[in-house]
Specification:
This protein has 162 residues and is an alpha+beta fold. 12% of the residues lie in helices and 23% in strands. It starts with a strand and ends in a 31-residue tail after the last helix.
Length: 162
């Protein structure tokens, strides 16, 4: 495998996804895998979790990927360098892209061995986090998702799982 999980370079982010090989700009880094469910099921699961902790990827109303119970789904460990806590000199080097109905992390610039893979979760995600009083030091504040779809991760990742 050309990827590994280690402690993230972003303080209090938990684990991160790191390259063990060179990924050139445009390369597929990894597919976002997990249980395939519907958007309605995502909302229901979010309510059951009281809005705390999940690893959802929205593809369409009929297809979302839930990696909550899939620690082997390495893509879920990619953090967002443009989130609430920003570190000078660290920026996103990948993007999410749906190709033929499957979500992937794609290198948006060259990623060298040893580099952490950073991918944007999207403005909606961070706006919702701020609205719900997310504390980057603790990561335990609940976030509620509404009837609108969110592009990628929908609710904060559980610190214990990340």
């Amino acid at each position: 495998m050309d990827l590994e999980i280690k402690k993230s370079g972003i303080p209090n982010a938990g684990k991160g996804l790191f390259a063990k090989a060179l990924f050139k700009r445009g390369d597929r880094v990894i597919e976002y895998t997990g249980e395939e469910i519907t958007w309605a099921q995502c909302k229901k699961r979010n309510e059951e979790l009281d809005g705390v902790g999940a690893y959802y990827f929205y593809v369409s109303n009929r297809k979302c990927i839930d990696a909550q119970h899939r620690p082997d789904s390495l893509a879920r460990y990619a953090n967002d360098a443009s989130g609430i806590v920003r570190i000078p000199g660290i920026r996103n080097n990948a993007r999410f892209e749906v190709i033929k109905g499957k979500p992937y992390i794609i290198a948006s610039r060259n990623i060298k061995p040893g580099d952490e893979v950073f991918v944007s979760y999207g403005k909606e995600y961070w706006d919702a986090m701020r609205e719900n009083g997310f504390d980057p030091e603790h990561k335990k504040k609940p976030i509620k998702i509404d009837g609108e779809h969110h592009e990628h991760h929908l609710v904060p990742k559980r610190e214990a799982k990340h």
